[in-house]
């Protein structure tokens, strides 16, 4: 018999990147005093990973809880980026409703569409939160209209279309039902969650059922499986059945049960249906498995996750500088780390290659794989990674490739540049809108008033490298978002959207200002003086679409007429800082990104000049 548990609400917070999910959760925690000294924890309390704080995005879904008016509200903070959609898809299974955050200025964005589609497919109802209403150019009414259009476009049911709306400023910690009457706290939001979000459906008297949707590791308790109890209850010391994805059953004993109170996990002796818990004692627990009653084990439907669209090779670093920086450098160590990542990263795939020292890693996008590489780098790994490649499919004998919905927000003056660049990458223009800008004192004579919002349907092969190209051509004023859309027939005309020529170091040594002064006439440099280089290392981008070898280690010879002191007159342009993501977008099929704990270098696959020329003739 199905019943509803009225003392609990399980909600997931979903939104586009940077629309204020984590900031809103912080305000909810602070106003309910869910943790001791919560004010001293600063901002973005839920973003606990270093990369999350640095990038300003959520990468891993997190759990927390608050208690309001006697009702416990379990909160799941989800990533907003489609590259981490695997996190969204599985964590939404814990929720009974969602808070959909929409920026009052920007309205629904591509990732909003992605996360909302996943929620609607699971039959969840949404509370629409129009956030950042305190922005000077906010337009809450237009944001509401666009959100309704998005629900309609995603074929929401009549019940889902009848969504409640609340207006908030997460930074200020206020909420209101009427935009004309500003709020003073988040009380209206808490009351709306309790009133509008469904209480969890439970089968209290049925045998235990819990679908494992997340994992965590504790130094004392070992591996813990996290999920929502769908039926029955679980007690400490109970013998349970672990139903694997392939149907095999392993009996295990529960050693610990943890529930969420604020940001902490608190041990309890028993938990009942409807609660989100972490269970210890199941040594090899994995995501997608069901923890069930030992006498009557019944599996729950497993998690379905979208397939990867991009792949690249992770290999042992073979450069002359290999082993100088990192501690973990062997193929065995890299393989073990990738296998460990597979346990929690459900959207990732790892395969062996013909080369024993390289592995084919597939993910949901460049950012998905870049975050993993950056994490490995910080853990002390050295590796080299190849250019991201799009994963092709075959349907009815026809080659299919992934297409993405690309949205670009840019000042109107760059319209021609955008259309030219996207046209070369075989993008199909879907829509182009101009947002008027009402500046104080009017628009200056000759200036273009307005910002363009352009949408393209573009092959993923064309999207790779698009952001860095537009950032350069639009002087850093282009905002690019992209989202996997569908598979379409392969575009043979798009040969190489990211074609470029590289400046390659001619010999081993240390770069000098004298040599770089000459080299910078050939293109833009990635290094400054005093940098150790090796033959075959990419040190810049050629102004022409062909590779060129240059000597960046040449020193000025001493003579009676001149001295090294005259080098002070050399004026070098600042080098282009080539980080991990820019490096992955830049490299071609014959290049690698060399990743070490303290350096990121670009290099040719074949370092020796003559061998490279011979390989080019084949």
Quick overview:
With 618 residues, the chain is of the alpha+beta class. It is built from 15 helices and 38 strands. Among the domains are: 3-201, P-loop containing nucleotide triphosphate hydrolases (Rossmann fold), CATH 3.40.50; 209-293, Elongation Factor Tu (Ef-tu), domain 3 (Beta Barrel); 393-489, Alpha-Beta Plaits (2-Layer Sandwich).
Distance between the termini: 71 Å
How many runs of DSSP E, i.e. beta strands?
38
Percent helix: 10-25%
Unreliable runs, pLDDT <50, ≥5 residues? 36-48, 438-448
Describe this structure in words.
By secondary structure, this protein is α+β, with helices and mostly antiparallel strands. The strands form seven sheets. Strands 21, 22, 23, 24, 25, 31, 33, 35, 36, 37 and 38 form an eleven-stranded mixed sheet that branches. It has 15 helices and 38 strands. The chain is globular. α4 (110-121) links the parallel β5 and β6. Among the domains are: 3-201, Rossmann fold, CATH 3.40.50; 209-293, Translation factors (Elongation Factor Tu (Ef-tu), domain 3); 393-489, Alpha-Beta Plaits, CATH 3.30.70.240.
Task: List its salient traits.
Rossmann fold, single chain, 618 residues, Elongation Factor Tu (Ef-tu), domain 3, 32% strand, alpha+beta, eleven-stranded mixed beta sheet, Alpha-Beta Plaits
């Amino acid at each position: 018999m199905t019943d509803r548990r009225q003392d609990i609400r399980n909600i997931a917070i979903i939104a586009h990147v940077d629309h204020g999910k984590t900031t809103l959760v912080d305000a909810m925690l602070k106003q309910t005093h869910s943790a001791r000294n919560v004010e001293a924890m600063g901002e973005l309390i839920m973003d606990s990973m270093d990369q999350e704080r640095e990038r300003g995005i959520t990468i891993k879904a997190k759990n927390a809880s608050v208690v309001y008016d006697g009702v416990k509200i379990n909160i799941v903070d989800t990533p907003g980026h489609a590259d981490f959609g695997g996190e969204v898809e599985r964590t939404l299974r814990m929720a009974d409703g969602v808070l959909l955050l929409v920026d009052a200025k920007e309205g629904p964005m591509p990732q909003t569409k992605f996360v909302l589609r996943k929620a609607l497919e699971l039959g969840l109802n949404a509370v629409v939160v129009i956030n950042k209403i305190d922005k000077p150019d906010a337009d809450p009414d237009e944001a509401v209209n666009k959100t309704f259009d998005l629900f309609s476009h995603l074929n929401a049911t009549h019940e889902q279309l009848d969504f409640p709306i609340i207006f908030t400023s997460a930074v200020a910690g206020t909420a209101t039902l009427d935009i004309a009457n500003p709020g003073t706290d988040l009380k209206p939001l808490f009351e709306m969650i309790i009133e509008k979000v469904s209480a969890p459906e439970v089968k209290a008297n049925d045998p235990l059922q819990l679908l494992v949707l997340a994992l965590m590791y504790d130094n004392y308790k070992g591996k813990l499986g996290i999920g929502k109890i769908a039926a029955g209850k679980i007690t400490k010391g109970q013998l349970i059945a672990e139903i694997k994805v392939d149907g095999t059953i392993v009996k295990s004993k529960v050693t610990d049960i943890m529930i969420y109170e604020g940001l902490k996990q608190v041990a309890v002796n028993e938990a009942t249906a409807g609660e989100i818990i972490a269970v210890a004692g199941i040594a090899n627990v994995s995501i997608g498995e069901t923890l069930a009653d030992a006498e009557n084990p019944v599996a729950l439907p497993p998690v379905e996750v979208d397939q990867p669209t991009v792949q690249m090779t992770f290999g042992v670093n073979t450069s002359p500088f290999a082993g100088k920086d990192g501690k973990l450098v062997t193929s065995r160590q890299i393989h073990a780390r990738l296998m460990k990542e597979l346990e929690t990263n459900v959207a990732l795939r790892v395969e062996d290659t013909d080369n024993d020292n390289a592995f084919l890693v597939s993910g949901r996008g460049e950012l998905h794989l870049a975050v993993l590489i950056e994490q490995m780098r910080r853990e002390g790994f050295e590796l080299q990674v190849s250019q991201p490649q799009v994963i092709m499919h075959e349907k009815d004998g026809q080659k299919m490739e992934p297409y993405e919905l690309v949205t670009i927000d840019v000042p109107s003056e760059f319209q021609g540049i955008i259309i030219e660049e996207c046209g070369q990458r075989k993008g199909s223009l879907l829509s182009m809108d101009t947002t008027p800008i009402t500046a104080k004192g009017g628009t200056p004579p000759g200036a273009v008033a307005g910002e363009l919002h352009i949408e393209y349907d573009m092959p993923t092969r064309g999207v790779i490298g698009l952001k860095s190209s537009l950032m350069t051509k639009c002087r850093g004023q282009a905002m690019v978002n992209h989202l996997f859309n569908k598979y379409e027939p392969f575009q043979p005309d798009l040969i190489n959207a990211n074609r470029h020529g590289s400046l390659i170091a001619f010999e081993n040594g240390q770069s000098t200002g004298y040599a770089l002064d000459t080299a910078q006439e050939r293109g833009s440099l990635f290094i400054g003086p005093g940098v150790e280089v090796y033959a075959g290392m990419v040190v810049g981008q050629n102004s022409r679409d062909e590779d060129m070898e240059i000597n960046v280690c040449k020193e000025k010879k001493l003579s009676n007429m001149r001295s090294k002191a005259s080098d002070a007159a050399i004026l070098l342009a600042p080098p282009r800082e080539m980080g991990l993501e820019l490096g992955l977008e830049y490299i071609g099929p014959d290049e690698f990104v060399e990743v070490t704990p303290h350096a990121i270098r670009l290099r040719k696959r074949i370092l020796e000049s003559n061998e490279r020329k011979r390989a080019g003739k084949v």
